[in-house]
Amino acid sequence: MKKNKLIEHTGKINVLFSMIFVLLVFIYIISSTLLTGLDPRLLKISCLFLVCILGLGTVWINLLRCQITSYMDNLDTMIDGAIHGREQLTYYDETSLSSIEHKLMRYIDISRSNEQNIEQEKNKIKTLISDISHQTKTPLSNIMVYSQLLSEVPELHKDTLAYINHIMTQSDKLNWLIQSLIKLSRLESGMISLRMENHPVIQMIKQTVSQVYDQAESKNILISMTCDPTIEARYDPKWTSEALFNLLENAVKYTETGGKILLTTESNEMFTRIDISDTGIGIPREELHSVFKRFYRGQNVRELEGVGIGLFLAKEIITTQGGYIQVTSEASKGSVFSVFLPRI
User: Where does the chain cross the membrane (predicted)?
Assistant: First the structure.
């Protein structure tokens, strides 16, 4: 489109200059005729001169048009080849057009080199994550298994049993932290490919609620939901369930005994909204902008268990799918976390 406009604009300029040139030659012929008298030989020579000049001008214009068209075609081929990763054959000369072509080729080469470096760094990160996952899994599993075996030894001293239980608890926490960090690193480095398809959200919500039901029941927390079974969204069921679980687990953790948690859904043209509201301890307004930061822990929850990665991971999962999370809360008045998933 741009190439056609350039040629059309150049053609208009050439026509304008041609008309001016013809007019000047015509004025010259008339002036010469009037000054020297009406000589047929002079008139023929002048007309022949005019025809020759017009012919040469037409040839020059066509050559210039061909040169511009060839240059634009070369640039188009070069850019198309760069997009598809094809090597280009460049002819070096001293023209300004060739200079632009060479600079464009250099820019394309630099961009391609940067892409290769980024891909190499990604591969290094992937290898590092895989190594960390493999190297920590076996010793941590051994600690957990041996701790379980020790706890089953009869007639252990009360203090010894307490130490063993503490080791088991901390091992579980460490295992959860390592797995969460590995999931987050894989997500950020592009190792995980999200399979986004249209699904009803009610099944995912029910499955996630079942994962925190025992924990909520132990605190006598009532979990209820209002969800239209026809509401759908475009999401990856496995990873979106992971994000929703982190939000629900936080709701159970920070809601006092006898509290309530309500899940509701609604849909509009662009997004499906899932609200998780609780009657928990809430979040101070000045901390709302920080709750989704990595390893952030609020002032009013420092004494409770947690490392501050669950909300960050949930946000990364949802935003990677083209959605977002909002939170509204006040201290001692509960919280509402709203998950927005794209519909299409």
Answer: 12-30, 42-64
